Amino acid sequence: MRRLIYLLVIAVAAPARGAVDATLVAKIDATARAVGWADWDRDGDLDLAIGAGSDVLVYRNHHGVLTLAYSTHTDGVWDLAWGDVNGDGASDLAIGGPTSISILINNGSGTGWDESYVVMETGAAAAVHGVAFGDVDGDQDLDLAASAWN
Ligand SMILES: [Ca+2]
Ligand SMILES: [Ca+2]
Ligand SMILES: [Ca+2]
To answer: Which ligand is nearest to the CA of 133?
Structure first.
């Protein structure tokens, strides 16, 4: 079932807790489950990735205005997380999906991905609903935690 999802950017001013200013960024006709910020195009500001149905949508930030810059079709995006997997300074994207965990390698120029690959096949019995990067063993590279259920 497809649902119309409203995506909002909500500014929360720290001194005025509870007072929020919400800006409508886009309406997406898909089940949107995940969002994440990173400087995708390496221009110094944060861009927004959205998992919308089977697509990863990247909205480029230009002086605070977000516009859809790139769309990548996958077999489903249940969660996403940014992290520089290959250490080239550009944030890459991990995707938890209905049957696998995959990685999109950022080409670093704001024009797309160098490659994508599946890290782990979980099968239909274990949809991946959560992914998060962290350096678990302190060896200066990112490790990936994932949660799955069916
Ligand atoms: Ca940027
Ligand atoms: Ca990278
Ligand atoms: Ca590590």
So the answer is: 3
pLDDT (tens digit per residue) in 75-124: 999 999 999 999 999 999 999 999 999 999 999 999 999 999 999 999 98
Angstrom distances, CA of residue 125 to CA of 42, 76, 97: 37, 15, 12
Distance 46 CA to ligand 3 centre (A): 24
pTM given for the model: 0.87
Could you list which residues have their CB under 5 Å from ion ligand 1?
Answer: 39, 41, 43, 45, 47
How many Cβ atoms from other residues are within 10 Å of residue 125's Cβ?
A: 9
Contact status, residue 68 vs residue 25, Cβ threshold 8 Å: no
Spacing, Cα 112 to ligand 1 middle (Å): 13
